[in-house]
Amino acid sequence: MSLSHGTRSRLIIVASLFVALVLSILPWPVWTEQFRPDWLALVLIYWCMALPTRVGVGTAWSAGLMLDVLYGSMLGENALAKSLIAFLTVRFHLQLRMFPRWQQAVVVLLLVAANNLLVLWIKNLAGQAPSTWSYLTPSIVSMLLWPWLFVILRDIRRHGNVS
Amino acid sequence: MLQISGWQIRSPSNLTRFVLLALLSVGLMLLDARGHHLQKIRAGLTVLFAPIQIVAAIPVRVGGAIIDFVRGDASLRAEAERLRSEQPILLARVQRYEALEAENAHLRQLLGTSALVAERAVVAELLEVASEPFRRTLVIARGAKDGLYIGQPVIDAYGIRGQVSEVGVLQSTAILITDPGHAIPVQVNRNGLRAIAFGTGAPDTVSIRYLTASADIKPDDLLVSSGIGGGFPFGYPVAKVKKIVNDPNESFLDILATPVAQLSHNKEVLLIWPAKSVMPTEAKKAVEMKKPAEQKKPVEPKKPISIKKPAETDTPVVAPTPPVRDPAKPAEGTDQ
């Protein structure tokens, strides 16, 4: 490997965030859209938990801003929500690591729900609040997905020797 | 359970950084929402992140190619046959439409009211990317170089889909009529009752607000754009009334309607440059202003001989026939 260890780790993390961004805008049939998990939040939660020194509020903010651009939403909306998630995860990363998988999943549910509610709140202030309840489903789907995503990302981290 | 201990592992700058970035976000949002100061920055960033959108669109393109390949000759031939048989009918209808429009213009001239200038339309391909969870948007593979502008109506063969909300260099974003931030002035086709259709965020519902219990509106009524406000041209179908709830506790009816445009299906949309209501003398100027870009107009059916009105001399009266694939024209959408 010609790349230094730090650069390689950073590349792998950025690549995983890139994949999460692509998944966030990957087209699905319309009726499945309300079940789309918050990929970016999930990946960010994992890295903030596993490597809080490398991935933190700043990374989450930048990634959230990219999501804002891709979605065409107000700049800063998702950036704020994602940095909130990152902040909470980094703050409690030691406890999170000790939790059994299902308990982690519950925390993920709460984090993604907080993210969605914050976004919803901002949208409401801007006068664009949706009048449906479907904004709560992504957090549930994210929770169900967490155990699998955790295993995948953990393997990536171990094989890629990311630290 | 999260509140216990944990204080000893917090990196000292974590909270500070979060607070700073949160303030920065709020500042950005205020700038973006209030003053639209960030249009240029956003346009630049959109170009920068276009690769992500292209990557995200790959699966659908590949899927479409595979489906086309598997479907094979027979069904393609059948489809070509169907399109070929449909075309004369549509052309015939266009002729009638042109005659009617000419007559309409003539009558308007007699009345001394403003005349409608011809519309121009362009087919635009959609970039297959999903929208934000709570919103309904489309990404269109056309941008400022094609002359798109913010607020431009986006339609398909069945009705109004939405309007352009953001124009980039090569691609633009449109919000659908179901987007929670969208509202469109409509009228009931049957009796001209005016209303406003708001998006709800649900993929197949718009809500009609501010109509009182005495309003003459029934399920299955067709709502067409009323043209008030000037953003959308008059007469394009918007939605069909699905359900009317009359709750005596509320001051207004709760009306839900289903959009008639295929909001989630087609791969293409039509962008139209709507007819502006202008006085005949100004018409020529308006036409020349609109004309540049795009001059493809295939098989124009024989123009009916009509009064020589400056507006009509050098533009197609209806939208030019969209090249291949999309057989229907926007003009036929109005079933009045």
Give an overview in words.
The complex is a heterodimer of chains A (163) and B (336). Chain A is an all-alpha fold and 163 residues long. Chain A has 7 helices and no strands. Chain A has helices at 5-25, 39-50, 57-71, 77-91, 93-98, 101-125, 137-159. In chain B, 32% of the residues lie in helices and 22% in strands. Chain B is built from 3 helices and 14 strands. Chain B has helices spanning 14-35, 39-111, 280-290, and strands at 115-116, 120-127, 137-140, 153-155, 160-167, 172-176, 183-188, 194-199, 206-209, 222-225, 237-245, 254-259, 268-273, 277-278. Chain B starts with 13 loop residues before the first helix and ends in a 46-residue tail after the last helix. Chain B is of the alpha+beta class and 336 residues long. The chains are: A mainly alpha (163), B alpha+beta (336). At the A-B interface, helix 1, helix 3, helix 4, helix 5 and helix 6 of A face helix 1 and helix 2 of B.
- Total helix count of chain B? 3
Shape of chain A: globular
Report the β-strand fraction of chain B as a percent range. 15-25%
Shape of chain B: globular
Strand content of chain A: under 5%
Biggest β-sheet description of chain A: none
Structural class based on helices, strands and sheet pairing of chain A: mainly alpha
The percent range for helix content of chain B is 25-40%
Biggest sheet character of chain B: 6 strands, antiparallel, barrel
* Mean pLDDT over the residues of chain B: 75
What's the count of strands of chain A? 0
Distance between the termini of chain B: 64 Å
